[in-house]
Amino acid sequence: MHKRWVIPDIHGCSRTLHSLVDNLIKPTRNDELYFLGDYVDRGPDSKGVIDFIRDLEKNQYNVTALKGNHEDFMVELWDEGKKSRNTWWTRLGDRKHKIWMDIGGKATLASFRTDNIRHIPEGYIEWMRNLKYYVQLENFILVHAGLNFKNEDPFEDRRSMLWLRDYEIRPDKIGNRRIIHGHVPVNMELIVLSIKNKIYRFIDLDNGPYISGKDGFGNMVALELDSMELVIQDNLDL
Fold first, then answer.
1. Spatial separation of the C-alpha atoms in residues 148 and 157, rounded to whole Å
2. Contact criterion met (CB below 8 Å) for 11 and 40
3. What pLDDT shows up at residue 85?
4. Which label site among 70, 94, 175, 184 has the fewest CB atoms less than 10 Å from its CB?
5. What fold, for 4-234?
6. pLDDT reading at 105 higher than 70
7. Closest CA to 36 of 165, 142, 195
8. Angstrom distance (rounded) from CA 143 to CA 136
9. What is the CA 9 to chain-centroid distance, rounded?
10. Running DSSP on this structure, what letter comes out for residue 109?
11. Beta bridge mates, 231
12. What is the DSSP secondary-structure string of 71-98?
C-alpha cells in the first residue's frame, strides 16, 4: 500500500531534508510526497533543497510542491530586479531587498554563489513561480499558511494561502476537512497533540528546522496521512 507524506518548511536545510527523505521516509515511486513550501532562506543551502526536490520530480517520484511566502517574495524580488535599470539596485538600500536579507536571503544568495538575485538562473525562479497554492484531499487541505475564511470562497484568496498567520477555521466551508500547514513554527508538543486529537481543526507541522538552542524546536518532520505516523529528523545543517 502506498504512503502519503507531508513535509513542511525546509528553509535551506538540504542535508536534513536528504536524511529525512532517504533514511526515514524511504519513498517508493508509488508513494506521494507533499511539500508545503518555504524551501529557501535562513538555512545554508536553498539551491540544494530545490535541486533535491526537482531531482525527485525528474526521477518520476510522485511529488506535489506548494508555494510558500519565501518563494513568493523571492520571485517578486527577482522580477523587480530584472526590470531595474540600475545594476546596483540591491546595494542601494532597496527596502524589500533589506527585508529579504533579514529573513535569510543572504544565505540563499550564497548557496547560488552570487551576491545579486538577478544572477539566480531563471529556471529556479520559474519553478518557484509555478508552484501550486494548495491541495485538496478527501480529509485534508494542504496549504503553506492558511485560508481566509472571511471570504465566501476561502480558495479565492491566494495571498492568504502564503502569508496568513491567525485565522478562525470554518469547517463547513472546506467540507469538514482538516487543514495541514506550516509557516508558523510551533513546538513539538503542539504538533503531536494536534495530530492525535481531532478536536484540532488544523495541524501545524512547522517545527522551525532552522531554529537552534530552543527547547522543542529545530527539527524537520514528515506526517504520513493514512497512519498519522510522524517521523522526526533533527537538524544536520546548523
1. 7
2. yes
3. 57
4. 175
5. Purple Acid Phosphatase; chain A, domain 2 (3.60.21)
6. yes
7. 142
8. 9
9. 4
10. H
11. 222
12. HHHHHHHHHHHHH-S-TTGGGTT-HHHH
Whether residue 64 contacts residue 141, with contact meaning beta carbons closer than 8 Å, is answered with no
Domain boundaries, the chain: 4-234
Q: Which three cell numbers stand for residue 213?
A: 538552542
Residues in the chain: 238
* Contacts for 211 with CB less than 8 Å, ≥ 6 apart: 185, 217, 218
Q: How far is residue 24 CA from its own chain's centroid?
A: 19
Burial of 113 (0-12, 13-18, 19+ CB in 10 A): exposed
Q: 80: pLDDT confidence band, cut at 50, 70 and 90?
A: confident
pTM (whole model) above 0.70:
yes
